[in-house]
Design goal:
The chain is mainly α. The chain has six helices and no strands.
Length: 114
């Protein structure tokens, strides 16, 4: 049996930052287009597509967490608080949920293979 691939803590932090940037992607693409920075526009197009695809693969419960805690009014909350308030779980389980969400983005970006 093959060992499950692991995502490093640095990569998880980067993926979380990317997921949280989703609401600003339209603005960032517009700025890049204004500056005629084609590589930046391509990057944001790809990132937007990857986030959309990852989001669509999540369960409805996880989609609600993403909408509220990554993109919504509570995006400032840490994962311990998200676990307590939204999931009713302890710190460890809340980080497992975070990993599930970010793992889906890593798969869409080709950082992991299923």
């Amino acid at each position: 049996m093959r060992k499950k691939q692991e995502i490093s803590s640095e990569t998880l932090a980067f993926l979380e930052e990317q997921f949280r940037s989703y609401p600003q992607i339209g603005f960032l693409k517009a700025v890049a287009e204004k500056r005629d920075a084609n590589k930046s526009v391509e990057y944001y197009d790809t990132l937007e597509k990857d986030i959309n695809n990852a989001f669509e693969c999540l369960s409805e419960d996880l989609q609600e967490i993403v909408e509220e805690c990554f993109w919504g009014k509570n995006r400032h909350l840490d994962w311990e608080t998200i676990g307590a308030v939204y999931l009713g779980v302890k710190r460890r389980k809340s980080y497992e949920v975070r990993y599930q969400i970010l793992e889906e983005l890593a798969l869409k970006q080709g950082l992991l293979i299923r």
